[in-house]
């Protein structure tokens, strides 16, 4: 089920009644879109936090395999992933003030949601890159290359997320 549908279904009786007030329905629908996107981004941040913990375990594996020279390279991936997590948690909800020149419309909020939802596809890509590092550590070969691939994958997700602001402008 789509997070937007869950938010809509969670409306109480009073909220459903008030939604019939002229002008309120559009306002409430925008608020629900913002809330759905916020919940989606929080879920996405938790998914990436799990991946960050997996990288921390890789650091322990490196130490156990006596490959401490690669810890700094792997730490770069941890930092990039934490940066992404922080950005997901603090990203704009699609608000524009009453007197702002740019008004946020439903289409823009929907575009933000779809953009954030598409980022869910990146979680398995990061997980796959982490698994490759783990396998390389176990095989004791290709570790540096696997770490470089992981860091590149995480940077790619960060680069994609950087385009989020453009989504609102394009959807107007």
Topology, pairings included?
Blueprint: H1 3-9, H2 13-18, H3 24-64, H4 71-90, H5 106-118, H6 122-139, H7 143-162, H8 164-170
Helix pairs in contact: 1-3, 3-4, 3-5, 3-6, 4-7, 5-8, 6-7
Salient structural properties:
elongated
Provide structural commentary.
The model is unreliable at 95-102 (pLDDT under 50). The protein has one domain (3-170). Helices cover 77% and strands 0% of the residues. It is mainly alpha-helical.
How many domains would you count in the coordinates? 1
User: Got a strand count?
Assistant: 0
State mean pLDDT (0 to 100 scale). 81
Structural class: mainly alpha
Give the overall shape, derived from the CA principal axes. Answer: elongated
Report the total helices: 8
Question: What percent strand?
Answer: under 5%
Radius of gyration: 20 Å
Largest sheet features: none
Order of helices and strands: HHHHHHHH
Helix content: over 70%
- N- to C-terminal separation? 27 Å
State the low-pLDDT regions, or none.
95-102
């Amino acid at each position: 089920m789509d997070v937007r549908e869950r938010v809509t279904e969670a409306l109480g009786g009073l909220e459903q009644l008030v939604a019939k007030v002229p002008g309120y329905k559009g306002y409430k629908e925008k608020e629900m879109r913002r809330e759905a996107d916020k919940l989606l981004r929080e879920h996405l941040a938790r998914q990436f936090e799990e991946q960050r913990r997996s990288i921390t375990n890789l650091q322990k594996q490196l130490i156990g395999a006596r490959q401490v020279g690669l810890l700094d390279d792997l730490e770069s991936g941890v930092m990039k992933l934490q940066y992404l997590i922080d950005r997901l948690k603090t990203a704009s909800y699609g608000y524009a003030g009453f007197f702002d020149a740019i008004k946020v419309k439903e289409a823009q909020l929907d575009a933000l949601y779809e953009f954030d939802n598409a980022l869910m596809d990146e979680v398995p890509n990061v997980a796959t890159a982490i698994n490759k590092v783990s396998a390389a550590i176990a095989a004791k070969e290709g570790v540096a290359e696997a770490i470089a691939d992981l860091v590149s994958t995480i940077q790619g997700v960060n680069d994609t997320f950087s385009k989020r602001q453009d989504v609102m402008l394009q959807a107007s």
